[in-house]
Input
Amino acid sequence: MSPMARTATAAASASALYDVPGPKTRKRHLVYGLLATLVIIGLIAWLLYLLFDTGQFTYTKWMPFEYEGIQELLLRGLGNTLKAFAIAAVLSLALGGVLAVGRLSDHAPVRWVATLIVEFFRAMPVLVMIFFIFVALKVQPLPALVAGLTLYNGSVLAEVFRSGVNSVDRGQREAAYALGMRKTQVMGYVLVPQAVRAMLPAIISQLVVALKDTSLGFLITYEEFLHAGKLIASNLDYDLPFIPVVMVISPIYIGMCMLLSWFATWVAKAERRSLKTEAVEVAPAEPGTLLPGAGPPTAPKP
Output
């Protein structure tokens, strides 16, 4: 077989889910990619034209950000956003763990109650819960925001935890019970450590949702980052710099979400490099020690 034929055979065998594209298909995909790139560039150019045409980059609109009071207002709002997120994230993880234990309980009443709580708060809009806690229960803005975020994200994380534990091979559970472990030992030493890797991307995704949902605090007068931007855009007589405020706040929100995702990736890599999860080198097999007076085995004589 010629080298070209071997290469084609190897490429065809390397893909089991789809056919390897031929020359015409590759050209067609290249054309599609170029057209999509041109469309994206055109949209970006059109957006920049609108921004320049409406004077969004004029010095008048960006001048407020030079004032120390405006900078302090934004930093204070960013700090309040991070504080609300940190509290809500810790409480959501704790609530999710408790509800997941209830969903996995062997006692039917506990399992039913946990299921009812999870399904109710998963179906309830976050904004409705925040408004109810703030208006009906007359709770302060920060506790109302944290409570709403905790109830929603905790119920979602409960399902993430339950699905992660159930995704572990059933044989692991059975082997642990066969060794005489109790259920708490099976969960803590066998199932949960193996499920963490499968759960980590979903956990980080839900924490990113919680971080973005902290912006709902401005609706209940909580002085978070978006609320600070709204004050700057609406209360200053600088030709209402709404677009510059958005252009300042949005990259910071995106950066915080990307930083959280990067942290999750770093944790996952660190876990794979952990001594507890590294593969242990096994020494090659060697002949065993002979019994005293015994010689090495020999083939029978004919």
